[in-house]
Specification:
By secondary structure, this protein is an alpha/beta fold. The chain folds into 2 domains: 342 residues, 3-Layer(aba) Sandwich (Alkaline Phosphatase, subunit A); 65 residues, 2-Layer Sandwich (Arylsulfatase, C-terminal domain), CATH 3.30.1120.10. The protein contains 13 helices and 14 strands. The strands form 3 sheets. An 8-stranded mixed sheet has the order 5-4-6-1-7-8-2-9, with helices on both faces. Helix 2 packs across helix 9 and helix 6 runs parallel beside helix 9. The longest helix is centred in the middle third of the chain and has 28 residues. The radius of gyration is 23 Å and the shape is globular. 47% of the residues are buried.
Length: 447
């Protein structure tokens, strides 16, 4: 009798072990984030001179989105939204200074799911960057590469690659957050020299780029030389992306790894100062393509970014998604679905768009909102094809309404032609704005 009982227990244990062994491992996730890279800065997004073969290949092997948005138009708000699934102005204590408080992060959820988690490069998510912060096992805040002849992000990509090799048995999640093309753009000569044949023809660029050319020459810049330096900085991003793709192939991880490349917001402006021009400012020739604005603005050039994602056998290859409206506010719920995480925070501003990543077409369920973390900050929203901007208060409130389907450059304010629509959207935007803190705590003396 005892022998039969023992055999029964062993059978159950063996069956449970076999069942667990047969359970598919959740996918690895590699998230490469550029800084201040414009929507139009890659060859596969239409730049006339850029050389980005690795990113072009990533797009050919995955899906390239053209209606993908960030959650903020400066560095920290963009990171806050994707890490927490909450619109940045919900945080009364500015997250760049105080962190995310008691809010759950996607890395914490993935850590609980059994992921090895890593972060390499730029941080900008609060004062604490020790290992274990936000559930991230390995945090290495790495600045510009020590080798003066290398691209500025080489060191942080090398550290991320070491992490991938160490945790190749997975599952792992890794942030690879670079510094290019943030100010100052000053790549090694070898990178800029690769583009010595480039001669800028202003007609190759849309109207939205012409003011940058004028500012560059106004402060004494040579358009050809400045463009070559900017292209060199973009090229080093591409080289590093290629290094990651090569290692994933070498380790046999291609098929079970979600690879994402994007930018934290639109391109930075040329910085002009009343008491002189900042060195290297003339090299800030990032392009938002046909879109108006860039970093610091909530127009499309500031909020719309390149987004490329690959997961062989799951995410369609060679697809250009120009229909679905997606955002990094959806990052947390979407990764939770793909990683098999059931427990999520009750308050999430984003929605699960895993079906869209996997090839579906549909209207999003929630509008997108933007606002600076300031009491009198001007809010904006996108719902369907409509983009609404509000500024001022009361009777002095100014309204801008654009139909992005017919006017993606936001050049024709049609608010007066659609009073009913303006009233409905304004009511919704003001209602969201009323949910936000009345005041914000920001440190006055930042590093």
């Amino acid at each position: 009798m005892k022998l039969k009982s023992l055999l029964l227990v062993l059978t159950l244990l063996f069956g449970a072990a076999s069942s667990h062994a047969d359970e598919p491992q959740p996918p690895n996730i590699v998230f490469m984030f550029a800084d201040d890279l414009g929507f139009g800065d890659l060859a596969c997004y239409g730049h006339p001179y850029a050389q980005t073969p690795a990113l072009d290949q990533l797009a050919a092997e995955g899906t390239r989105f053209t209606r993908f948005y960030v959650t903020g138009v400066t560095c920290n708000p963009s990171r806050t939204g994707l890490m927490t699934g909450l619109f940045p102005p919900r945080f009364a204590k500015y997250a760049a200074d105080y962190g995310f408080g008691d809010r759950t992060t996607i890395t914490e959820l993935l850590k609980q799911r059994g992921y090895h988690t890593g972060h390499f490069g730029k941080w900008h998510m609060g004062p604490d960057d020790d290992n274990g912060t936000y559930g991230i096992d390995t945090v290495e805040v790495i600045g510009k590469s020590r080798d003066k002849n290398a691209g500025r992000d080489d060191d942080l990509y090398a550290a991320a690659i070491d992490f991938i090799r160490e945790h190749k048995d997975g599952p792992f999640y890794v942030n690879v957050w670079g510094h290019a093309t943030h100010f100052p753009v000053n790549p090694p000569p070898a990178l800029a020299d690769k583009f010595n044949a480039v001669t800028v023809e202003r007609a190759d660029f849309p109207d939205t780029m012409q003011h940058k050319f004028e500012e560059c020459t106004q402060i004494g810049g040579d358009l050809d030389a400045c463009m070559r330096r900017y292209l060199g900085d973009v090229y080093q991003i591409d080289q590093n992306v290629g290094r990651v793709m090569k290692v994933l192939d070498e380790l046999g991880l291609r098929d079970n790894t979600i690879v994402v490349f994007s930018s934290d917001h639109g391109p930075a402006p040329i910085i002009l100062k009343s008491k002189g021009v900042r060195e290297f400012s003339k090299n800030m020739l990032g392009s938002a393509g046909i879109y108006r604005g860039g970093k610091h603005t909530q127009y499309e050039g500031g909020t719309r970014v390149p987004f490329i994602i690959r997961w062989p056998g799951h995410i369609p290859a060679g697809r250009v998604d120009s229909q679905n409206v997606c955002s990094f506010i959806d990052w947390m719920p979407t990764l939770c679905t793909l990683a098999g995480i059931d427990t999520r925070p009750e308050l999430l501003d984003g929605e699960d768009i895993s079906d869209i990543w996997l090839g579906a077409n549909r209207e999003r369920n929630k509008p997108l909102f933007w606002k600076p973390s300031a009491p009198n900050g001007s809010p904006a929203m996108r719902e369907g094809d409509w983009k609404l901007h509000l500024s001022g208060r009361g009777n002095r409130q100014q309204v801008e309404l654009y139909n992005l389907a017919t006017d993606p450059s936001e050049s024709r304010n049609v608010a007066e032609k659609h009073p009913d629509l303006v009233a409905r959207l304004t009511k919704r935007l003001n209602a969201w704005n009323a949910e936000l803190p009345e005041d914000y705590d920001k440190k006055k003396n930042r590093k």
